[in-house]
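Why this split exists: single-chain examples teach little about how molecules sit against one another. For that reason, every record in the complexes split bundles all components of an assembly together and asks for one structure covering all of them. Below is a record exactly as it appears in the raw files.
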Amino acid sequence: MAGVKTKLNFAISGFPEFTPEVRDVERRWLSLLADVFESYGYANIETPSVETVQTLASKGEDVDKEIYALTRLAAIGETTSAKLALHYDLTVPTARYVAKQHGNLTFPFKRFQMQRCWRGERPQEGRYREFTQCDIDVIDQDTVSLSYDAEMLEMAVVALTRLNVGPVKFQVSNRKIMDGLATHLGLPDGTLLARILDKVEKLSTEKLSERLTTELGLDAAGIDTCISFCKIKGGPDAIATGLDALGISNPDVDAGRDALCNLLARVEKSRPKGFIIDGDLAISRGFDYYTGVVYEARFIDFPDYPSICAGGRYENLVGQFMKRKLPGVGISIGLTRIFTKLLSESLLETGRRTPTEVLVAGDESLTAAEAEALAAEIRATGANVEILPDVPRLDKQLKYANDKGIPYVWIIRDGVHQLKDMTSGVQQAITVEAFAASRA
Amino acid sequence: MAGVKTKLNFAISGFPEFTPEVRDVERRWLSLLADVFESYGYANIETPSVETVQTLASKGEDVDKEIYALTRLAAIGETTSAKLALHYDLTVPTARYVAKQHGNLTFPFKRFQMQRCWRGERPQEGRYREFTQCDIDVIDQDTVSLSYDAEMLEMAVVALTRLNVGPVKFQVSNRKIMDGLATHLGLPDGTLLARILDKVEKLSTEKLSERLTTELGLDAAGIDTCISFCKIKGGPDAIATGLDALGISNPDVDAGRDALCNLLARVEKSRPKGFIIDGDLAISRGFDYYTGVVYEARFIDFPDYPSICAGGRYENLVGQFMKRKLPGVGISIGLTRIFTKLLSESLLETGRRTPTEVLVAGDESLTAAEAEALAAEIRATGANVEILPDVPRLDKQLKYANDKGIPYVWIIRDGVHQLKDMTSGVQQAITVEAFAASRA
């Protein structure tokens, strides 16, 4: 990709697709992420792409608008109401899955899930209508250890470091502090407050104040408190000092602050060079189901690009689908969002155009049956091998190998076998036995 | 799964989901299939789940009815016409992909694709609304070598053998013979004839005759010819003899017969024990786009179960999306259909419930920080390691390891390290160095 910005050009706006050499890199990423998640004992699952509308809806105002419902094409135009829809994240489907599969699972249930999600939003840089999310979550019965809040963050950091995506800034908060702020402001709960303050980076102070007044009935002092609250950022000391200065203290604020400060202190030791992991009370994430820690991460080099990693703790999500309380905590890595950004900034090295390692080629003296028999023999050594059928001229076969980036061409001319290294151009006598030995 | 039939029980009818230990087997299958396809030089791609309705529609009467269109939930009830829909196979999307990416690809373009597809059909045994297909196709410019007709079949046979799915019967025909039959019967082309004869196994002779009369205007002699035609099955000799006996010969019939008989003769040598690869002129597949060889495969032990593998040659599919002619041939392995059948017949060995190899455990003397530091050290040797936080009692930790099938528990008691083999129960002194050496 030679340092030139790659223009992403999709057949349908918002629905990414890649050439084989780019897909090869994406596959390596998926494999590497799976390795990291498995190294911490997380098992892979997949859930259907589809859930009932009832399962998906009412989890946050922005996402509700973006749900893609399914209708059989034959029924379009009929006044049917949609019952099924494509999932927009992997957290809600997993909560439903845990409720359904409860009797078949051992708790704490630690799973990773790497699947496509869909949101009918306006496509723009980093925002797609179809994208792959890589999620890790742990769900337990009755309570889920606070240690997992740290484990999630640690795994995300390890994963992003291994993917070599460049420096990343994590911002962490705790919804309990937001709930405590709501109590302090005389509001019944923190849901609507969190929804509004989640927009603090996008809205002007004027617009934010207007929403706080009209939707929550806050007065000027309350609005000031909210705005100051959102500016509290930094390490454990900065968070504690900031909250003290604001003069907010109640059981929720104190519990949230302690959890957040402990977490920040704990993960500091696993922070790689160049990464930032800060508290930031403005972070609340757009989903209503978070109840504890919330995470968000961005590229340090592209601060205006949307968040590349996010998650949090949810105490009551599974409980919506079954009677028992099964709290969880998880983090989601926005694979497509990260991958396409590095791709368009030419920060990725392209992969292989083909998995073929050896092209069996020859002049007119080589019959198709001979070529096939030899290819099968070489394949049996564990190599990926192909033949270009119906192409008698050797130069065309060599050009094909060159165009596809096939590293070796096994050339048979008048019964003489030679292996040509396409990188160095060196050509030398070869036998299947010698080839097999060279791979062992 | 101990020889007992597993009842598949999904949250939403027609949308499969599996427990982690079953998903583990499905993942191994996907990896194994990828290895087979790569060993023949096929590169992986993925296409979006979504195509335009225009791209997907009008490829076959049955499938058109089953297309799932996407509508934003907010727009349900409005009289909008759907523009986007979920793909029902991977052939049409790949043809569209090749047209779009034409300038970025090297031909012959050999790709494999393992993705979910969706069809809004009535769920029943082997028929799901969401399912994973594993497709191999080769698409070339102007012509695609007939050798690939054999390579597809060979790869499918190798793949199914490696998956150890039991004996399979492949039925192969060639659409050109069907086209020739249409000419012989005085019909303009073979499309509608193929659609009707595709139902020969499902419809009574009476019902079939009725459709041939009303939809194609065939007389009794024509109907008899069709019914005799559909009975022509077997090896190259049986096919040639059968067509001679029917007295049909014209350029299409002869070209199709030669291609089919050559193919059957060629693949005979790679046929594994227990597998059948037969010609069968009744096979035409439900898609209108096939123009040459057509394949279909079924379990020999479950002859009434739907086809588990299918495909064919299409000369004009890519041409619908660009001006140039790019013919192709491919075969699709119905992963979900095969997998769920073996699962429900208890013919699969369950996989791992967790990837964890070592649980770090201890009595009350072990601190969380010590456990984490040790887990990180063991993880650095390449092992998958976890800790069960906040569980002080060792018996609970051992029970957890046992329930999840974790093979080793690293037990620390009063600073003494022992590794317990959960299968044998043997427990012996261990160090990280000794553990690393045992894995090397």
